[in-house]
Amino acid sequence: MRVIVLATVLAAALGSSASAQRGDYRHHSYCLKTGSGQECAFDSFEQCQAAKRGANDTCMQNSAPQNH
């Protein structure tokens, strides 16, 4: 009985992580470049500009997604 329960829990965990990896991707149009990296989470240039934290931060258009 324990083996069936364990197998069911394991199958559910593996199935949910696989669906999260392939179905939750969303391409955003703009990236915020900072001194330590970049964050591509903005749908408009204005959203990116509002998220700037320093004078050297810049907003740039995100390139087209590859293989999505």
Please state the average pLDDT score: 78
User: What is the element string, with H for helices and E for strands?
Assistant: HEEHE
Main sheet specs: 3 strands, antiparallel
Uncertain residue segments: 16-20
Strand content: 15-25%
Number of helices: 2
Radius of gyration, CA atoms, in whole angstroms: 19 Å
Distance between the ends? 41 Å
Task: Name the strands of the widest sheet in spatial order.
Answer: 2-1-3
Domain module tally:
1
- Classify the secondary structure makeup into a structural class: alpha+beta
Helix content: 40-55%
Per DSSP E runs of 2 or more residues, the count of β-strands stands at: 3
The outline comes out as elongated
Give a description of the structure.
The protein is α+β, with helices and mostly antiparallel strands and 68 residues long. It has one domain (2-61). Helices cover 43% and strands 22% of the residues. The protein contains two helices and three strands. It has a three-stranded antiparallel beta sheet. β1 (30-34) and β2 (37-42) form a beta hairpin. The longest helix has 22 residues, at 2-23. The model is unreliable at 16-20 (pLDDT under 50).
